[in-house]
């Protein structure tokens, strides 16, 4: 049995999430439901839940302030939030789990399953990255969090030469000749990297423009990267690529 606490200032959202957990995630036992950060602070310290479902936007003490006051994060975090493009981008950037309200049953089950399987708790760096990206969406953060089968890899965006789709995963080819397999789709990687000089040149490839050494003409053509890799450019994306070099 996995224990959990729900923190949200909206009673209806709390009740709905609790019902979904009871029906579709029977392995989760809800220890407490808190409608304020202050109540959650006391509850979490006393009951030590293994998963915290946490709303960010709450009056008096928001989710981030609660985490700061708790200090030691010895539980899995699953944020709950209303749709906000900057918030969603921040979560993807930091590779921390989130659920959009109203919470979808299948997404909840996936999030709980990942939390149960995870062997490492959210890193302080990930929370810091989330906070920076959430509060200052226009300011690029030096590193991004890449979820992998082993945990998370923190790396600088400019260390990536190119990204290649592998179904629901993405292979990242790095300057130091390493290859990292990220538990993210290529579309998600494209959104994470949009503040950096990366362009999707093919339905299966994203390239770092600073690492393109040559473009060879053709129907779509292809690029030669700094590591010697040859990557095809689709006809539909050829003009976009060429415009970036003009």
Characterize this entry briefly.
By secondary structure, the chain is α/β, with parallel strands linked by helices. It folds into two domains: 2-135, Rossmann fold, CATH 3.40.50; 147-244, LytTr DNA-binding domain (OB fold (Dihydrolipoamide Acetyltransferase, E2P)). It has helices spanning 11-24, 37-47, 63-70, 85-94, 105-117, 124-135, 186-192, 235-244, and strands at residues 2-7, 28-34, 51-55, 76-81, 97-100, 143-147, 152-156, 160-166, 169-174, 179-182, 198-202, 205-208, 212-216, 222-225, 230-232.
Explained architecture:
The protein has helices at 11-24, 37-47, 63-70, 85-94, 105-117, 124-135, 186-192, 235-244; strands at 2-7, 28-34, 51-55, 76-81, 97-100, 143-147, 152-156, 160-166, 169-174, 179-182, 198-202, 205-208, 212-216, 222-225, 230-232. It is of the alpha/beta class and 246 residues long. The chain has 2 domains: 2-135, Response regulator (Rossmann fold, 3-Layer(aba) Sandwich); 147-244, Beta Barrel (OB fold (Dihydrolipoamide Acetyltransferase, E2P)), CATH 2.40.50.1020. The strands form 4 sheets. The protein has a 5-stranded parallel sheet with strand order 2-1-3-4-5, with helices on both faces. A 5-stranded antiparallel sheet has the order 10-9-8-12-11. Strands 13-14-15 form a 3-stranded antiparallel sheet, with no helix packed on it. Helix 4 packs antiparallel against helix 6 (124-135). The chain is elongated.
Number of helices in the DSSP assignment: 8
As a whole number of angstroms, the C-alpha radius of gyration is 20 Å
Beta strand % = 25-35%
**CATH hierarchy, class of the largest domain:** Alpha Beta
Distance between the termini: 59 Å
Q: How many domains?
A: 2
In what order do the strands lie side by side in the largest sheet?
2-1-3-4-5
CATH superfamily annotation of the largest domain: Response regulator
Give the biggest beta sheet: 5 strands, parallel
Q: Name the poorly predicted regions.
A: none
Q: How many β-strand stretches?
A: 15
Structural class, from secondary structure content?
alpha/beta
- CA-based shape: elongated
Protein name: Putative two-component response regulator
Keywords: Phosphoprotein
GO molecular function, one term: DNA binding
Modified residues (4-aspartylphosphate): 55
């Amino acid at each position: 049995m996995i224990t959990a606490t729900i923190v949200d200032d909206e009673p209806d959202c709390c009740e709905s999430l609790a019902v979904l957990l009871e029906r579709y995630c029977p392995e989760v036992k809800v220890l407490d439901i808190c409608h304020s950060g202050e109540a959650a602070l006391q509850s979490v310290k006393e009951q030590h839940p293994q998963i915290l479902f946490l709303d960010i936007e709450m009056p008096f003490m928001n989710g981030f302030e609660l985490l700061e006051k708790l200090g030691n994060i010895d539980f899995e975090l699953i944020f709950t939030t209303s749709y906000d493009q900057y918030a969603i981008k921040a979560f993807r950037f930091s590779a921390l789990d989130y659920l959009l309200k109203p919470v979808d049953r299948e997404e909840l089950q996936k999030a709980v399953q990942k939390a149960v399987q995870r062997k490492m708790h959210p890193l302080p760096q990930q929370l810091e990255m989330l906070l920076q990206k959430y509060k200052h969406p226009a300011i690029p953060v030096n590193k991004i969090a890449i979820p992998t089968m082993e945990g998370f890899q923190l790396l600088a965006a400019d260390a990536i030469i190119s990204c290649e789709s592998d179904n629901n995963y993405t292979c990242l080819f790095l300057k130091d000749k390493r290859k990292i397999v990220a538990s993210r789709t290529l579309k998600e990687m494209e959104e994470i990297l949009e503040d950096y000089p990366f362009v999707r040149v093919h339905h299966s490839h994203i390239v770092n423009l600073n690492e393109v050494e040559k473009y060879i003409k053709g129907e779509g053509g292809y690029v030669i990267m700094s590591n010697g890799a040859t990557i095809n450019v689709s006809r539909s994306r050829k003009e976009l690529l060429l415009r970036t070099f003009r």
